[in-house]
Amino acid sequence: MDKLRSKFPVLRQYIYANTAALGLFSDDLLDWRQEHDLDFLLGGSSMRTESLKIIQNTRDSVAAMFHCKGRDVALVPNFSLGINMLLNHLEKETKVLLLENDYPSVSWPFDTREFNVIKIPISEQLEKDIEETVAKEKVQVLALSIVQWINGVKIDLDFLKRLKANNPNLLIIADGTQFCGTTDFNFEESGIDVLGASAYKWLFSGYGNGFMLFKESVKTKFNIPVIGFYAAGADEEQKNNIPFARKFEPGHLSCLVFGSLNFSIEFMMKIGMDKIEKKIHDLSVIAKEEFVKLGLLEDLVAKRNIHSSIFCIKGNDKLFQHLTDNDVVCSQRGDGIRLGFHFYNTEKDIRDIVKIIKSAK
Hints:
Blueprint: E1 15-16, H1 27-43, H2 48-65, E2 73-76, H3 79-87, E3 95-99, H4 104-111, E4 116-120, H5 126-137, E5 141-145, H6 157-166, E6 171-175, E7 194-198, E8 210-214, H7 255-271, H8 273-293, H9 299-303, E9 310-314, H10 317-325, E10 328-329, E11 331-333, E12 336-340, H11 347-359
Parallel strand pairs: 1-10, 3-4, 3-5, 5-6, 6-7
Antiparallel strand pairs: 2-8, 7-8, 9-12, 11-12
């Protein structure tokens, strides 16, 4: 796995712990993008057939990676656009449960519409709190990030599956932007009804590409009037037969940016999502142990058994500058400093970061 690091130029000069902000481009992806644009430069409209093929291949790759049907995949420029398109057609006064301090693109689309919104804090016993609130408040929609953007708290996916089984009419909408690309995830077998993600982070595909996945039951809950020639496959006869997911694709999609997503997914699947998942898990365990020893994690993160590979450590501007001066790429989030580790990181990266933190004065 560590041999793959040579494909990511940033790693040659920095300790990159910032995938939670932006995933790295690989040399191979850049080569593919340059070749693609050269084909457009020389081929012009002759690329039309190839571009449609690239989009379909991307849809198939997303379906294969997340174990769902291709017809249930919508390719969207980002999660924010996809969720807003969906919620425009959710009934007013729907009772919705959100998490406090969740990513704004998850909460704001609900906050700014006429829904009955309830929010609960993220606690050590988050799953129990969700379950009790759903029952007590008769919640109709639960919307949350699978992995929290600031502190990396990860919801128990087995819990969501049980919650859905016990509340079959509950609509569960999840943002997988900080999750997709870290785990071998089976959407069909999950408790999630709608999963959306932007792909510029853990799927390291650059900006402008993402997807929405839909369970069959969702299609009866929403009437999506969005329409366009592309959604019908450029076939006027199919105007009234547009599949649900394709309604989120009313116009032409960029084969460059979605081809980049396809390239990265194929790259990851060639490595093996089981291997990637194990590597990330191992790094997460090591990082958590080290940060707990230094007293750098909030109690709720330290005490939870399930966590992602994103950590927000206690630290001020001075510590952030010290890390930056020592070639650690990270982000200030909330009241601390966020560090995130992907499969292209190593145990040495974590050990070096710990040494740099200890050396701060």
